[in-house]
Design goal:
The longest helix is centred in the N-terminal third of the chain and has 25 residues, at about 1-25. The chain has ten helices and 32 strands. The chain is mainly beta.
Length: about 725
């Protein structure tokens, strides 16, 4: 043991000396020459020159052990792992919007004297307050373990400023990041609430009451240097001084905190990978590897792309309404109730969920314009999806011909003259007898629990085969099978009490059959007014529950908000029966929520809140953010707090949970993959009851998104594709 300790110390000092020597050899002698702060254009080009900020030990952008104020490019997703004695960290995060980064992190102890594994999960959030300009630094506020284990909980305010090849950072930390106690907490003067001490060994989770508390704060800072003069893009050197004095480790097992300073080397490979190594003080090594990409660069979509139909440059002959629907059908589109008069061609367009709505509207308008005769000057289309309808959209035919046929116009000109309006359904010619064939959809689902404190990570992989069919008079039938491929859920019995066969806690039992019935339901959907939508469903609603219920959504067109309410009477399905289809009728329960949505202007993400009763009959609220990308990729991050807690294996409880969901379309990956095929990644609590929402078969907000003003306006460019 003594020899191993000396060997480890010698290795740490060797890496420390190597880092210092390399920095000295590569550093030019005139680095401190006067160099004014860069103008905004240079700041924006900084990352393009291979000098983008790199992640810190815990995953978010930062130096070695401290965060900075920097943000990734919008849509960046990062996954990685790092280690610094006595912990290793795994993390996955996304730059949801330009000023917002959200990350799930799982931290585990390398070794424990008791021999029992212990994990410290958390959701980390960083929010940019001020963007860097010529004379103003970038300013961000961040939260480590905003919810999760208290061991790593902390808050900070960081400022970063570029100066030539240097990126300087300074900040103030509360909680663990401020445990050096350099100064009294200034918020104590506002309220005695901020004076309370934190217990970093507590098995309870962090809550809003812990934010910015503690008698003292700490200061941290450092610099990242990009040696651009070498012509070697992607290389940087980091040095920082932190204020983390390991309070939880000192309380739990008397660990001596390492030196507060660190030095490291980072290499970024083609913006796809970051590798960092370095030393904390002279006796501890750290290492980190992260992989990242940008969702906007996602190469696949839900369906293969095809060329748009040709539009006639000049009008000839009489018009025929039937020809509109016929040619649209040959193009894979469905036009209902086509109608033609002297001034207008109109039809109802059944939207394909695997194509952008604006692209479908543009192609339908071409077919209608080609067969509208010589006199019709307007093309009117009513979008229609799963018996729900959007507002009537009227395009000027001449604008479309100018842009699509003669190449002298633009989508912006068409948008400028377009008109949206609402009329009663009976004036719209909506098809009461709409039907289609059963079309299977496939989804490969990876589910893992990053937020468990009694397991490193639970995981489950399944193949879902789903089908839906539109029926007459507003009805929709749906069914799905789940093929359970692989999981490690049998491990939950090692630290948790056996669960009943009729609760989500028994997910290991539901996953035991190779094939199970995921859902089988019948729904009725209706839009009495353009802004108001209804859905009622009954049957096997999800893997764990059967029942009946419904949802109402009010989503005013052209507004940035929506509101709705839903309620469900549920009956648990009994795990272990044939296809898990037997129902335990004696345990009926109800769940319901008030749903609110807000769309920040000039963005394609939605902030939402849900308040009500969850499937375990506990009360609470969920807040989250979701985003839909043009390729069909979807992202959803959320956190939930309820009045009941799931107990863990260490005597603690968990009132606060959260998760991240990703939907990755791969329908055009290979010609034999069916349209609509996708990969679903769910990082959320597994085998848990409290704070869990019903996985409802119909989501009105999702269904109406392609017909919303926000979606149409932001994706209008696809009209001519």
């Amino acid at each position: 043991m003594q020899f191993k300790r000396h060997l480890h110390t010698a290795a740490c000092r060797f890496v420390f000396a190597l880092v210092v020597l390399t920095a000295l050899l590569l550093a030019p002698f005139d680095v401190l020459a006067e160099n004014p702060a860069p103008p905004q254009a240079e700041i924006e080009d900084h990352n393009k020159a291979g000098r983008q900020s790199s992640p810190s030990l815990l995953g978010m952008l930062g130096l070695n052990t401290i965060p900075n104020a920097r943000m990734d490019e919008e849509g960046t997703i990062r996954i990685g792992a790092s280690t610094l004695d006595p912990y290793y960290h795994g993390f996955i995060g996304l730059q949801v919007a330009k000023p917002l980064y959200i990350q799930l992190r799982q931290t585990g102890e390398v070794s424990r004297a008791s021999g029992m594994e212990r994990y410290y999960p958390g959701m980390d959030v960083k929010l940019r307050l001020v963007e860097e300009s010529r004379y103003v630094p970038e300013l961000s506020v961040g939260f480590n373990s905003l919810f999760g284990d208290k061991r790593f909980s902390s808050e900070y305010i960081a400022a970063s400023k570029r100066y030539g090849d240097f990126d300087f950072t300074a900040g103030i930390g509360w909680g663990r990041l401020g445990s050096a106690g350099h100064w009294k907490n200034p918020l104590r003067k506002l309220s005695s609430h901020f004076d309370k001490e934190r217990d970093y060994t507590s098995t309870l989770t962090s809550t809003a009451e812990d934010l910015f508390t503690g008698k003292d704060i700490g200061f941290f800072g450092g610099v990242e240097y990009f040696p651009s003069w070498t012509g070697f893009d992607g290389l940087s050197f980091k040095a920082d001084w932190g204020a983390d004095r390991y309070p939880g480790e000192r309380q739990a097992f008397g660990m001596q905190a390492p030196a507060p300073w660190s030095l490291g080397v980072n290499y970024n490979y083609k913006d796809m990978a970051d590798l960092s190594i370095g030393t904390v003080g002279t006796d501890k090594l750290f290492a980190r590897l992260t992989l990242q990409t940008i969702f906007e660069n996602w190469p696949w979509s839900a369906a293969p792309k095809t060329d748009p139909p040709l539009m006639h440059a000049y009008r000839t002959g009489p018009g025929y309404a039937g020809e509109m629907a016929l040619h649209a059908q040959r193009d894979g589109m469905v036009l209902h109730s086509p109608h033609l008069n002297e001034s207008e061609a109109s039809a109802v367009l059944e939207l394909d969920p695997d194509q952008p709505a604006s692209l479908q509207i543009g192609r339908a308008a071409r077919h209608m314009g080609n067969h509208a005769g010589q006199d019709a000057e307007k093309i009117t289309i009513t979008p229609y999806r799963h018996h729900l309808r959007g507002p009537t959209l009227t395009l000027i035919r001449g604008d479309l011909e100018k842009a699509a046929a003669r190449g002298s116009g633009s989508a912006e000109e068409i948008w400028r003259d377009a008109e949206f309006k609402d009329t009663p359904p009976n004036e719209r010619g909506l098809p009461p007898h709409i039907t289609n064939t059963w079309i299977p959809r496939f989804a490969l689902e990876f589910k893992t629990d990053f937020m468990s404190d009694d397991h490193k990570f639970l995981h489950r992989t399944s193949l879902l085969i789903e089908e839906e069919k539109l029926l007459p008079w507003g009805f929709l039938a749906g069914a799905g099978l789940r093929i359970n491929l692989y999981d490690n859920l049998n491990n939950i019995t090692k630290t948790r009490a056996p669960a009943l066969k009729t609760t989500r806690s028994a997910e290991d039992l539901y996953a035991a059959p190779y094939v199970s019935l995921e859902r089988s339901f019948l729904s009725w959907l209706h839009t009495p007014k353009t802004n108001l939508h209804f859905a009622v469903s009954a049957g096997y609603l999800e893997e764990t529950f059967a029942g009946v219920g419904g949802e109402v959504l009010y989503r005013p067109f052209g507004k940035t908000w929506a509101a709705g309410v839903e309620g469900w009477r549920l009956y648990p399905r009994i795990a272990g029966t044939d296809l898990n289809q037997e129902i335990f009728w004696e345990d009926d329960r109800w769940t319901g929520h008030l749903n609110l949505y807000y769309e920040p202007p000039d963005t394609d993400y939605t902030v939402y809140a849900k308040a009500g009763r969850y499937i375990s009959e506990d009360f609470g609220a969920t807040i989250g953010v979701r985003r839909h990308f043009p390729s069909g990729l979807k992202f959803d991050a959320y956190t939930t707090y309820t009045d009941e807690a799931d107990p863990d294996g260490f005597g603690g409880s968990l009132n606060l949970t959260g998760g991240i969901r990703l939907t990755l379309p791969i329908g055009n990956l290979y010609k034999h993959i069916p349209k609509g095929t996708e990969v679903r990644v769910k990082m959320e609590p597994m085998a848990r009851d409290e704070g869990q929402l019903l996985d409802k078969p119909i989501d009105l907000y999702d269904l109406t998104e392609p017909m919303s003003y926000r979606h149409l306006s932001r994706n209008w460019g696809a009209l001519l594709e």
